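I'll show a sample.
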Amino acid sequence: MKTGERIRFACSPSRALAVAWALTATVVVRRRLRRHGLQATSPGSSWVPAGGEAGVGLVLGRLSPSCLERCLVLQRWLADHGRPLDVIIGVQVSRPANALAHAWLEYEPPGDFAELLRLPPP
């Protein structure tokens, strides 16, 4: 690259809207989890075009939300765009004394975790 040359970042309007929604949704879910526990839900995303899905992934990759926050945001996005999935909460099987909790969407492999609870899409 030459000195003074600008880098162009291609961002479609749908991706920009999805980024804005995902940023807001992650903050809202984090607050709602503190206040309402497992009854927390993400704000709706049906107004954001489905073509912006890469923007949602970008935000979730950068913000490093907890597994439950990530799942609740993705669950809402997917449900609003025609792919309703349950969020599954489980505990690690190999460490019963110091069990670790984890959340995942039903299409993701559970790994070493046993299912305890399912949260259906809102």
